């Protein structure tokens, strides 16, 4: 029997029974299963465990010593599983590690706060990065990704789209004018967001697969909030994601330009790298993130 623990469990039952048939009845298996398990243990250990006769079986001295130790080992494993509090599991206790872009730094904690309050013991571990996380090395349970999903192993749900806007403060537009095309951008002060993986500024995508490289920025940062602040202060034109730009566009603090050249919005996905088994706490947070981000 390949499973040594199960073989010891069968042996302990046989040691407490009058014969292998009675042990089989207790285990709800056939007598042949008991006989085979005992025989394989004897072959592996190189010692007989029972004296067999027509009247029944009796433990050998070696078998008696093994039975005493096996009961402790098997009992310890059984106790380990009995100690797991199923009520705690049903309450989704444990840590769920989520990776998401920095733009969700405030939204995700705020959106999941009622869920965390309703499930004591549930812990949210939020890791923020624009880079795609290594889900194995970083032990990621759930991810939020802006852009296409290229890994077919992930379970992913589309929850929306992320637009991009080229924006500037009204004062800057009054001073330098409104760009009438992509070629005009090179003569204007621009902000640049650094791609941390390459150390270079992210290029600005536009419709028809056109791209503008920010070669001489007026402001450089690796933080989207800092870039937004610089644009609001009139330092330069910036290409900002919708959740950052749109509140300021509605208030009039920023003005959108080159709207006819805007790229297709990027898809937003909530994904989990593990298909099964999925802990109840992970499924709970996954489903809630899909709901609140739609």
Structure description:
The chain is an alpha+beta fold and 294 residues long. Helices cover 39% and strands 23% of the residues. The chain contains 10 helices and 15 strands. The strands form 5 sheets. It has a 5-stranded mixed sheet with strand order 4-3-5-15-6, with helices on one face. Strand 8 and strand 9 (200-201) form a beta hairpin. Helix 2 (20-27) packs across helix 3 (31-45).
Helix and strand layout, with pairings?
Blueprint: H1 4-16, H2 20-27, H3 31-45, E1 50-53, E2 56-59, H4 61-82, H5 86-90, E3 94-100, H6 107-118, E4 122-128, E5 142-146, E6 155-162, E7 164-168, H7 170-176, E8 191-195, E9 200-201, E10 204-205, E11 211-212, E12 219-221, H8 224-232, E13 238-241, H9 242-251, E14 255-257, E15 266-272, H10 280-293
Parallel strand pairs: 3-4, 3-5, 8-12
Antiparallel strand pairs: 1-2, 5-15, 6-15, 7-13, 7-14, 8-9, 10-11
Helix pairs in contact: 1-2, 1-3, 1-4, 2-3, 6-10
């Amino acid at each position: 029997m390949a499973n040594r623990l199960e073989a010891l469990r069968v042996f302990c039952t046989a040691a407490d029974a009058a014969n292998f048939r009675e042990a089989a009845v207790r285990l709800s298996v056939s007598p042949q299963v008991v006989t085979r398990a005992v025989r394989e243990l004897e072959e592996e250990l190189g010692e007989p465990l029972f004296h067999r006769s027509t009247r029944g079986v009796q433990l050998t001295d070696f078998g008696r010593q093994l039975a005493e130790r096996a009961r402790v080992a098997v009992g310890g494993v059984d106790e380990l599983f009995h100690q797991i509090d199923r009520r705690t599991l049903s309450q989704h206790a444990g840590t769920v590690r989520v990776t998401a872009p920095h733009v969700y730094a405030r939204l995700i904690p705020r959106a999941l706060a009622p869920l965390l309050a309703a499930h004591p013991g549930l812990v949210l571990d939020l890791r923020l990065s624009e880079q795609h996380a290594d889900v194995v090395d970083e032990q990621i349970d759930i991810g939020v990704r802006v852009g296409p999903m290229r890994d077919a192993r992930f379970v992913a749900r589309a929850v929306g789209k992320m637009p991009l806007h080229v924006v500037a403060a009204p004062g800057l537009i009054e001073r330098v004018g409104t760009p009438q095309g992509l070629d005009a951008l090179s003569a204007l002060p621009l902000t640049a967001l650094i791609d941390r993986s390459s150390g270079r500024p992210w290029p600005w995508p536009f419709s028809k697969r056109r791209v503008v490289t920010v070669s001489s920025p007026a402001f450089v940062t690796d933080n989207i909030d800092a870039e937004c602040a610089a644009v609001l202060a009139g330092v330069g034109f910036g290409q900002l994601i919708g959740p950052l730009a749109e509140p300021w566009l509605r208030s009039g603090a920023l003005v959108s330009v080159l709207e006819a050249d805007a790229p297709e919005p990027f898809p937003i996905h909530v994904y989990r790298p593990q298909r099964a088994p999925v802990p109840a706490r992970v499924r709970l947070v996954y489903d809630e993130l899909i709901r609140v981000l739609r």
